[in-house]
Amino acid sequence: MPVDCKELEMFRDNLGKMLNDNDKFIEEITKELAQRLLAMLIKATPADTGFLKKNWSVVLTKTSDGYEAEIINNTNYASYVNYGHRQTPGRYVPAIGKKLKKGWVDGKFFVELSVAELRGITQPLLEKRLEEHLKEAFK
Q1: What percent of the chain has pLDDT over 70?
Q2: pLDDT tens digits for 65-106?
Q3: Do residues 109 and 81 lie in contact, with contact meaning Cβ atoms separated by under 8 Å?
Q4: How far from chain centre, in Å, is Cα 37?
Q5: For residues 62 and 26, is the Cβ–Cβ distance under 8 A?
Q6: Which helix (H) or strand (E) holds 60?
Q7: What pLDDT is stored for residue 19 in this prediction?
Q8: Do 56 and 71 touch, CB atoms closer than 8 A?
Q9: For a FRET experiment, which of 66, 73, 85, 101 has its CA 20 to 30 Å from that of 26?
Q10: What is the DSSP string of 95-123?
Q11: Cα(32)–Cα(11) distance, rounded to whole angstroms?
């Protein structure tokens, strides 16, 4: 009895193609997650002058395990705004034209809030992208 293996061979070829495209898929999903986090951080970052918001950037690096995205803000006071800081009450600050009143300024924790927001959407997003990837490979 003859057996038609065309579909099985097509499946094998598509599977091989998908496995070869895994690196590209991982890079794309890493970029997408990094861009989403960047957008969330920019939105959540408090702004008096807008300087802190404008200084966010993303660096994507290929590692032995895949890809790593680093989100950076080189503004020297970013951590103070995020985590809070001490200050000297009564000291005059020319940049704001006022004397400081409190000894402690609470942090805004915009980094942690943005990361938590991203974690909330990561699983469904990864499932959706993987499903799209599989459909593309096996169409």
Answers
A1: 91
A2: 889 999 999 999 999 999 999 999 999 999 889 999 999 999
A3: no
A4: 3
A5: no
A6: strand 56-63
A7: 67
A8: yes
A9: 73
A10: TTTEE---SEEE---HHHHHHHHHHHHHH
A11: 28
